[in-house]
Write a structure and sequence with these properties.
- The chain has about 70 residues and is mainly alpha-helical.
- The chain has 2 helices and 2 strands.
- Strands 1-2 form a two-stranded antiparallel sheet.
C-alpha cells in the first residue's frame, strides 16, 4: 500500500507541475468529440465522457505495468 501511495503522489506531483508550467500539454482534456457540453441561459453542464475513458485506459495500463509479476 505504501508503494502505491508513493507512486500516486509522484504522478500527482508531475501532473501538477505540467499544469503549472505547460498547461497546453493537457489542453485536449475536455475538448474531445465525445465530451458533452450543454449550455442554457442560466446553467451549464459538462460531461467529459471521452476524456475520462482515455484517462481510465492510460491509468489501467500504468497500474498493470507497475504491478505485473
Amino acid at each position: 500500500m505504501a508503494r502505491f501511495l508513493i507512486i500516486a503522489g509522484i504522478i500527482l506531483l508531475v501532473l501538477g507541475l505540467i499544469l503549472k508550467f505547460a498547461p497546453g500539454l493537457l489542453g485536449w482534456v475536455g475538448n474531445l468529440p465525445g465530451d458533452i457540453r450543454i449550455k442554457g441561459e442560466n446553467y451549464s453542464i459538462f460531461i467529459p465522457v471521452t476524456s475520462m475513458i482515455i484517462i481510465s485506459v492510460i491509468g489501467s495500463i500504468i497500474i498493470h505495468l507497475l504491478y505485473r509479476r
